[in-house]
């Protein structure tokens, strides 16, 4: 049985999600809607139509049984693509996309149809899914915006100044053996299918970094020839390096003035971003950890370090059971860029581990898969199951572009090992001896 949810609150969340979608899409110049800065994804125009199509297909047609008013667009924008593991493969470029004005009219018609009925009890189960889908795609759009050339962007006047705190000190924290609680009960409100059911794992003692690896620390790996050291990379990762010619993380560039780190609208001198978490693909994080004679933590180890306490209790968040607030981490679009690693001490876990939530999704070594007793989501059965293929890895915690609604213990993100566009971070772990 799902707990009761205030319909008005959900309606307000839906309107807020739409407002942020418009705000993000407003950062793209009109002549850039067909641009594909990430060649593995569809153009911006697809997402302009995909968000309302998802809402209409699941709410208007799916729950309320209303007839389609634009069946061609319902089908065209129904579902996105999973970026393939092979970087030589790109999304279909032959699609004949409709004009932007037609897609905008479709979006507005969907909103006009759904908003007056958003308080209907029949929608209470599916509406949270639609809201969270919209929120997750805000990050997808920003991954793409990050790679868009500057002349194709509309720089906003409301950007906040960069954070000025320093990275927290780095040291290894010993986590004793004990239980980790993953997942969520089925009566805990809307959750995606991969979040169910509750799973209790016995975790051996281990050590974990007190904060994520910074750009400054990752530079040591680069300068030591880490990208040329074959022994640090898996066979697949080595082939990826050969195809891509990669020698630096995705957001780093070399210039006459030295290294720079790209944000959504600027390129910062490396010194200004040196204390930020290093944002890299899973295979790059794994190679760095090997270079450090360490490894990435497992999903269960992350949960133990983040949500368990030395006394055996389990918290809703690293800082406790209170809701996510600005002092707890860099999430919720407060900064629109990373902040120095470990710069939110009030967000530390009971074991003293920093930056577990926000500032970048955190890579684990765990392959994305179902918990025992997995049941596909009735209204979206392929949401998780399509990606239980052994090629996706679990990320936890959230980025600066993660909405607070998604900042919850059970939420799981996943991407393939060679996908470098995610706002992701990582830290090293090791077994206790």
Share in helix? 25-40%
By oligomeric state, this entry counts as single chain
CATH architecture of the largest domain: Alpha-Beta Complex
Mean pLDDT: 93
Order of helices and strands: HHHHHEEEEHHEEEHHHEHEEEE
Number of helical segments? Answer: 11
| CATH T-level fold name of the largest domain | paralog of FGE (formylglycine-generating enzyme)
- What is the makeup of the main sheet? 4 strands, mixed
Description of the structure:
The protein has 433 residues and is α+β, with helices and mostly antiparallel strands. It has eleven helices and twelve strands. It folds into two domains: 146 residues, Up-down Bundle (Four Helix Bundle (Hemerythrin (Met), subunit A)); 272 residues, paralog of FGE (formylglycine-generating enzyme), CATH 3.90.1580.10. The strands form four sheets. Strands 10-9-8-11 form a four-stranded mixed beta sheet. A three-stranded antiparallel beta sheet has the order 1-4-12. Helix 1 runs parallel beside helix 5, helix 2 packs parallel to helix 4 and helix 2 packs antiparallel against helix 5. The longest helix is centred in the N-terminal third of the chain and has 20 residues. About 2% of the residues have low confidence.
């Amino acid at each position: 049985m799902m707990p009761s949810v205030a319909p008005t609150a959900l309606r307000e969340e839906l309107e807020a999600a739409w407002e942020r979608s418009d705000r993000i899409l407003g950062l793209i110049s009109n002549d850039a809607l067909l641009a594909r800065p990430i060649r593995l994804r569809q153009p911006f125009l697809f997402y302009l139509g995909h968000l309302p199509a998802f809402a209409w297909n699941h709410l208007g047609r799916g729950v309320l049984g209303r007839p389609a008013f634009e069946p061609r667009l319902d089908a065209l924008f129904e579902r996105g693509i999973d970026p393939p593991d092979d970087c030589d493969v790109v999304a279909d470029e032959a699609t004949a996309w409709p004009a932007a004005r037609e897609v905008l009219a479709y979006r507005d018609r969907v909103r006009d149809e759904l908003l007056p009925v958003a308080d209907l009890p029949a929608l209470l189960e599916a509406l949270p899914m639609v809201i969270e889908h919209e929120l997750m795609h805000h990050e997808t759009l920003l991954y793409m915006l990050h790679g868009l050339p500057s002349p194709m962007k509309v720089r906003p006047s409301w950007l906040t100044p960069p954070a000025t705190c320093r990275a927290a000190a780095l040291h290894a924290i010993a986590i004793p053996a004990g239980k980790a609680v993953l997942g969520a009960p089925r009566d805990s409100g809307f959750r995606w299918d991969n979040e169910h059911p509750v799973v209790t794992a016995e975790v051996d003692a281990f050590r974990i970094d007190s904060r994520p690896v910074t750009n400054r620390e990752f530079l040591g790996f680069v300068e030591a020839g880490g990208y040329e050291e074959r022994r640090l990379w898996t066979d697949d990762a080595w082939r990826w390096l050969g195809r891509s010619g990669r020698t630096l993380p995705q957001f780093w560039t070399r210039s006459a003035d030295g290294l720079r780190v790209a944000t959504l609208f600027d390129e910062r001198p490396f010194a200004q971003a040196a204390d930020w978490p290093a944002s890299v693909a899973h295979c790059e994080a794994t190679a760095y950890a090997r270079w450090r004679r360490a490894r990435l933590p497992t999903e269960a180890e992350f949960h133990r370090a983040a949500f368990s306490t030395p006394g055996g209790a389990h918290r809703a968040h690293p800082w406790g059971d209170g809701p996510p607030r600005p002092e707890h981490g860099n999430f919720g679009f407060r900064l629109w860029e990373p902040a120095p690693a470990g710069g939110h001490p009030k967000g530390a876990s009971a074991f003293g581990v920093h930056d577990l939530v926000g500032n970048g999704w955190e890579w684990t070594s765990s392959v994305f898969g179902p918990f025992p007793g997995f049941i596909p989501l009735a209204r979206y059965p392929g949401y998780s199951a399509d990606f239980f293929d052994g090629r996706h890895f679990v990320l936890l915690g959230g980025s600066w572009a993660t909405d607070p609604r998604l900042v919850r213990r059970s939420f799981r993100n996943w991407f393939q090992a060679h996908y470098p566009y995610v706002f992701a971070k990582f830290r090293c772990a090791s077994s206790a001896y």
